[in-house]
Amino acid sequence: MQVNSKLANAVRVALISGVALSATTSINTFAEEAVESNVERISVTGSRIIREGAIAPTPVTVISGDELLSTGVTNIGEALNQLPALGSTFSLANSGNSIGTSGLNLLDLRSMGTARTLVLVNGKRHVSSSAGTSSVDVNTIPSVWIDKVEVITGGASAIYGADAVTGVVNFILKKNVTGLDVSATKGWADDSSFNKDRFSISYGKDFAQGDGNVAFAVEYSSQEQLNAFDRDQTSTSFASLTNTDRTVDNNDPADPDKILTPNAGHYSISNAGTFYLDGWKTFNADGSMKDVYLGENVDGIRCSDCDFTNLNQFVILQPEFERYNVNFKTNYQLNDDHNVYFEAKYANSQSKDEGQPAFFFADPTNDVSIDNAFISSELVSLMEANDVDSINIRRFMTDLGVRVEDDTRETQRYVLGFEGVVFEDWDYDVYAVYGQTDLERINSNNLVFSNYENALDSILVDGEAVCRDEAARAEGCVAVDIFGYGAPSQEAIDYINTTSTGTSVIKQTVLGGTMTNSGLFELPAGYVGFSTGVEYRKEESEIFEPDNAEGTFFNVLGEDKGEFDVSEIFAEITLPLLADLPMVRQLDLDLAVRFADYSTIGNATTWKAGLSWEVDDEIRVRTTYAEAIRAPNISELYGAASQTFFSVDDPCRTSNLSDLSDSSIREANCSALGVSSSFDSDYDDKTLEGLSGGNEELEEEESKSYTIGVVYQPSFIDGLSITTDYWNIEIENAISAVGAQDILDRCVDSTNGVNNQYCSLITRDSTTGEVTQIRQFALNIAALEAAGIDFDISYTFEAFEGDVRTNLIATHLLKRDDYSFQDEPDTYEELAGTAGYAEWQANWSITFALDNWDYSWRTRYIQAVDLYTNYTLDNNANPSSAMAYGDYYISDASVAYTFDSGVTLKFGIDNIFNRDLPYGTTGTEAASSAYDNVGRYFHTTATYQF
Predict the structure, then answer these.
(1) Cα separation of 603 and 423, whole Å?
(2) Is the pTM of this model over 0.90?
(3) Residue 690: what are its φ and ψ, rounded to 5°?
(4) E strand or H helix at 782, and its extent?
(5) Residues 6+ away with beta carbon under 8 Å from 310
(6) Dihedral angle at the C-alpha atoms of 134, 135, 138, 140, nearest 10 degrees?
(7) What is the pLDDT of residues 707-755, one digit of tens each?
(8) Rounded-to-5 percentages of helix, strand, coil across the chain
(9) Are 140 and 411 spatial neighbours (Cβ–Cβ below 8 Å)?
(10) Which of 66, 197, 482, 518 is most buried when burial is the number of CB atoms within 10 A of its CB?
C-alpha cells in the first residue's frame, strides 16, 4: 500500500496545484518530483490513465525528438520509417509510384496498410494528406517542437478510434517553448550531386508572470532530385532472361527458369524509334537507319549486351522536394484551475517527380506512311523493296519530354481548447480541431493523341513538311519528325503536349472532450483511475480532375467525392486488484470501450481489456486483448473508377504454365475462362489497361489483437531495462485493394473454379483470350493475420568519465498471412520472410557524452528476405536466379561539440561503409524501398540555443 499511497498523494498534489493536463498527458508526470525513484517510472502515455515506456500495460516504443533528427534525415518521416515496427510503404524514395502521391511520407505500422495506422498530434486527430483516406503526411509536423513520438501497439482503437487497428503513432509536442533555437543542416552525397538542406528557428517566451506562454516556429527543408543514372550502381539495367542452358525444367532452384541478367533490356523499342523490316532497325540522330544489334543472348523482345533501351533512365531515386511550415502556439492560465490553449500551423510541401514519357509499343497509332514528309529515301527504298506502304515504329517519346508531376500540398490546422481541473479531482480537456489540406497536381508533357496523330501524318507541300489534314493544319497543327532521337521540333512538341491540372481538398472537423480522474476512489490495492469522453468528427474529401485528360496519354481519373461523420463516446478504467502480496507487488486491470455511430456503417463497438502485473521492483508482466471495427474510408467507399495501367504476366500463357510443377488447376480454370490451351500471346509485354476505384458495397472489417509482454529492470544492474512483447493481430473481412497480378493469379488458382470475386474483376477478349481490362476495386477479402515479438533493450551507464547510452530495438516477425478466398479459409499466402516483411529487423545505437562532446553510432539491420512467397513457390520452385535479398547492415556515425555560448556543431556520415542496394534494385519499388539508395552521405549541423 505504501507505494500506491505515495502515488495517490502525488496525484492529488498535482490536481490541487491546478496544473492543467491534456487528455493524453500523464498525471504522474507531475508526480515524478514528489515521489521516490521507484514510483518515478510511472507516468501516462498511450492512454489517458496508463503508464509510460517500459512499464506501460500496452507495448509502447518512445523515441525522442532529438533522436529522430540525430542522423542526416531532414524529414522525420524518413527517420520513423527506419523503425523495425514500421514499413517503408510510403517514403520519399517510392512516393512517386502512384499519381498524386509524390512527396508523401505515410506511416504503416506492422506493414498492414497505412489506413490501419492512426497518426495523432498531442493525442488529437490530424487532417489527412491524401484525398479519401485518413493517412497523415508526417512531413507536415513541426520537427523542431517534437518532444517525443510514441508508437503504440495493442488496444489502441478503444482509446483513440477505430482507425488504430494496428496501432497509433502519437507525436507529443513540447508544451511550453522558451528561448531561441536556431538550427541549420547541410548534407551531400558522396558519389552524386544529391544534397539536402534544413533550417529551423523557434522562439518562445512566458508572459503574464509565467501564467502564459507563446511560441512560433518556422521550418524549411529541401532536397534535389536524384536520378538512377546519377549513380553507377543504379544505372545498370537488368532483365530476367530465359535460362537457355537447360533442356528440361526439373523444378530445381539451382536451375532456374529465368536469369536476372545485367546490361539487358528491351531491344524492340527505343528513344530513337525501332521497327521491324528485314530485321530490327532503328534510327541515327540524322534520320538514317541502322540495324539493331541483338547480341548472342536473346529472349523474346529482350536481350543482353546488345542494343537495348535502359529503362533506368526514367527512374527517380529521390524526388525534388521542398517544404516549409509555420507554427504558432500559445496557452494561458486563466486561474489556478483552468487553462486555454490555441495552436495554428500552415505547411506547404512541393514535390517534383518524373516518369516514363509517352510511348508507342506495337500501337497502330504510330504507323508511318511511305509518303511521310520526314522519311528518308533510304527507308522508302527498303519499304518499296518489301512491298509495304507503312511501318510501325515502337518509340519512347523522350524527346517530347518525360512526364513530370508537380504536387503542391498546403495544410492548415487549428486547435482551440480549454483544460484544467473541475470538482477538485477531475482533469478535463475540451477541444475543437479544424484541418484542411489542398492539393494541386500538375502533370506536364502530356501527349494529346489527336494532335499527335495529326502531327505524325505529315506530307510535303511545296517542299515544306505540313500536317496532311488541312483542317488540323488550319488549327495550328505542326508536323513532327520521329526518325531519330531529338528529331521533333520545339513547335511540334508544343502542339502535341498539354498540361493537365487536378486538385483536391480534404477537410476535417473534430469536437471533443475528456474527463479524467486518476484517483477516483481507493480500493484496498490502490486508487481507481477513470477517464471518459466524447468526440464528434466529420471527414470530407473531394477531387477535381482536369477536363483535358481524356484523349491524352495521362490516365483518365474519376472525381472522388464523399464525406462521413462519426459520433463517439468512450471510457477507460484502471482497477487495482491486488497489492503487496508475495509475487504480486501490484496487479491492475485495465478496461476500455468506445461506442461509435458512423453515418456510413452505423454503430460500431471497440473494446479492450488488459492486465498489468508488477511482480516486484524488477519484473512486470503485461497483457491486452482487444476487438475493433474499422469502417471503410472515403476512397474505399466512394472512389470513382479511374483509368490505370498494370505490368502483369498472364498466368494462362502456356509459357507461364509450363514453369509450374503442377499446372492442372490453372489449366482447368483457364480453359473454363475460354482461353485456348495453345494461348501464348506476348501482348502482356506492355502494360495492360485497367480501372481502380472504390466499392460502395464494402462492409466494415473486424479485428482482434492481443499482446503479452515482460519488463525486466534488474536492481543489480542500474540503468538496464529489457522489454519483450508478443503481439498478434487478426483482421477478418479485411478491406483491401488487391494487386493486379494477384487478381489474375488468384482467379485461376482457386480450387473452387472461376466463380470467385477475382475472376469477376477481369475481362478477356472472347476471341483472342487476351485480358482487355483488370478492375482493381476495394474488396473485403477473407482475412489478414500478423504476429511477432518486439524487443527493446536499453542500458545507461558511466564509463571513461562520460555517460554511455545504448539501445536495441528489434522486431521478430513470426507470421504475416493473407487469406484471399472467403470460401477457402485454409488457403493463405505467407508473407513473413519475404521482401517488405523481414523476419528480423533491428536498430542498435550507442551514444557517448563526455564534457562538451557527443559521439553516436547507429546500425540498422534487415534480415535476408525471399522474393517469392510460399504461394508462388508451391507452384514453381525455381522461377528465377534472383530468389532473395541478403542480410543488410547499414551504419551511421556522428560527432558533436557544444560551446559554452550555446552553439553546437555536429558532423555525421550516414551509410558510412557505403552499403550497396540489393542486387538488381533501385530502392524505389515497394519491395526494396527499405534499403538506402543514396549511398554514403555526409551532413553537418549548426545549432544555437539561448
Answers:
(1) 32
(2) no
(3) -155, 180
(4) none
(5) 235, 237, 265
(6) -60
(7) 999 999 999 999 999 999 999 999 999 998 888 998 999 899 888 899 9
(8) 15, 45, 40
(9) yes
(10) 518
